[in-house]
Design goal:
Strand order of the largest sheet: 14-13-10-15-18-19-20-21
Helix content: 25-40%
CATH superfamily of the largest domain: CoaB-like
Number of helices: 13
Distance between the termini: 18 Å
Bound molecules: cytidine-5'-triphosphate
CATH architecture of the largest domain: 3-Layer(aba) Sandwich
Length: 411
């Protein structure tokens, strides 16, 4: 499953936050992109082009003029390289974007490679500004941002915090994971896709199952279905055929997936096993009840204290893992409230799966019922921490890890 990586250009301008772009470029690579780097003259005062060249394996473009046009592995063959770079990239991300670069872009100045490339590209442009808070708040900067926004540039607003100038306030470069998530959503809305899951059939389970107590009541859980739906949507966008097995949710499923609606754990088990043969990847994001109620046929009458008799449901994930075809990857989730990683590792082992995404569900702002999530993807040989982010961005990271698992030799 070897897909062409999408080329994205990272424009680095001269702010102290330029060092963070080194990590950004790494993150883009880990997420499956092919980053190329363009630096302004001032950026070179903060980071050496060689650092980017070594990471990306590509020449770093630092000037419009060919004699010193780049540092790295490829020779400069073209006098109109900015046009070539502008036309072959799928997105231009400027991080950090200084006040000076914002002003140049807003006024159409083209006196170096980055500003010239900006005018010459039709690819989506994303800017992550970073500067002193007073500069960021200055009416000139605000006007430049508004001009560029009106022309279709996507801005990742700087965060607040301690700034290199010693002040505290807005102007701090956004988190690299937020920049990555913005890139992914900008590419998705422009219908630019890596297609790196083409040929895969992914079963995703989502939502929270319900176990009837009687014909009108049930035992349920707080799952909204968002994490599973984000996975289904991202997998589909990346070229996979998606079969979405959805227990009750609070939101609508993504368009374009085949959706099988189920209610109870037993129905989810039946649907998953019925379609398992078609799957090359199974991701069990559903919150499945561990217990069901015995004899739930008649409506319970109010009649003093009651005890419900519960019996365990099948462990669908474990069953899928045992019955899967060779080569099918199985990924589970683990909702934990204590000893998160140790419990996750034990679950990875016990369920015989390729990866477990462990969530700490004790935080009220993340996980269940929330648009955001955080966690750690555990595999036999690897541990990827995902700091708090949107479920859409988290879905992309999980699929990236699945892709990595796909490239490992089967044991
Ligand atoms: N799961 C499943 N069938 C069940 C219960 C859970 O397939 N009857 C799946 C979930 O979809 C999830 C994974 O197993 O991918 C882990 O779910 P979790 O509730 O964290 O684990 P449990 O196996 O229920 O273990 P415990 O409740 O003891 O932590």
């Amino acid at each position: 499953m070897c897909a062409q990586r999408l080329k994205v250009t990272v424009g680095v301008s001269g702010g102290i936050a330029a060092y963070k772009s080194v990590e950004l470029v790494r993150l883009l690579q880990d997420a499956g992109y092919d980053p190329h780097v363009v630096m302004t003259r001032a950026a070179e005062e903060f980071v050496r082009p060689l650092t980017f060249a070594a990471i990306t394996g590509h020449k770093v473009i630092t000037s419009l003029w060919s004699e010193d046009a780049g540092v790295g592995s490829e020779a400069d063959e073209s006098g109109i390289e900015h046009i070539n770079e502008a036309q072959t990239t799928q997105a231009l991300i400027v991080a950090p974007a200084t006040a000076h670069v914002l002003a140049k872009f807003a006024h159409g100045l083209a006196d170096d490679f980055l500003s010239t490339m900006y005018l010459a590209t039709t690819a989506p442009v994303i800017m992550a500004p970073a500067m002193n808070v007073t500069m960021w708040d200055h009416p000139a900067t605000r006007a430049n941002v508004e001009t560029l926004r009106a022309r279709g540039v996507t801005f990742i607003e700087p965060g607040s915090g301690y700034l290199a100038c010693g002040m505290v306030g807005g102007g701090r470069l956004a988190d690299n994971t937020a920049i990555l998530a913005t890139l992914q959503s900008v590419l998705a809305s422009a219908n630019i896709s890596t297609n790196d899951l083409t040929g895969e059939t992914v079963i995703v389970t989502a939502g929270g199952t319900r176990e009837a107590i009687d014909p009108v009541r049930f035992i349920g859980n707080r799952s909204s279905g968002r994490m599973g739906f984000a996975l289904a949507e991202a997998a589909q966008r990346r070229g996979a055929r998606v079969i979405l097995i959805a227990a009750p949710t609070t939101i609508a499923p993504p368009a374009g997936c085949e959706v099988i609606c189920v209610t109870s754990a037993a129905e989810m088990q039946a649907a998953a096993l019925q379609r398992l043969n078609e799957a090359t990847i199974v991701v069990m994001a559903a919150a499945v009840s561990d217990y069901t109620v015995k004899n739930a046929t008649q409506k319970l009458k109010r009649d003093g204290a009651r005890t419900l008799e519960l019996e365990p449901t099948a462990d669908i994930l474990r069953e899928i893992s045992t019955r899967r075809n060779p080569g099918t990857l199985v990924i589970g989730f683990a909702a934990e409230t204590e000893d998160i990683l140790a419990n996750g590792r034990a679950k990875l082992e016990r369920k015989g799966v390729d990866a477990i995404v462990v969530n700490d569900v004790s935080s009220p702002h993340l996980g269940f019922d929330s648009k955001n999530n955080a966690g750690t993807i555990l595999t036999k040989d690897h541990e990827v921490a995902i700091p708090p982010t949107t479920k859409a961005a988290m879905a992309e990271r999980i699929l990236d890890e699945i892709k990595r698992l796909r490239t490992l030799p089967t044991s």
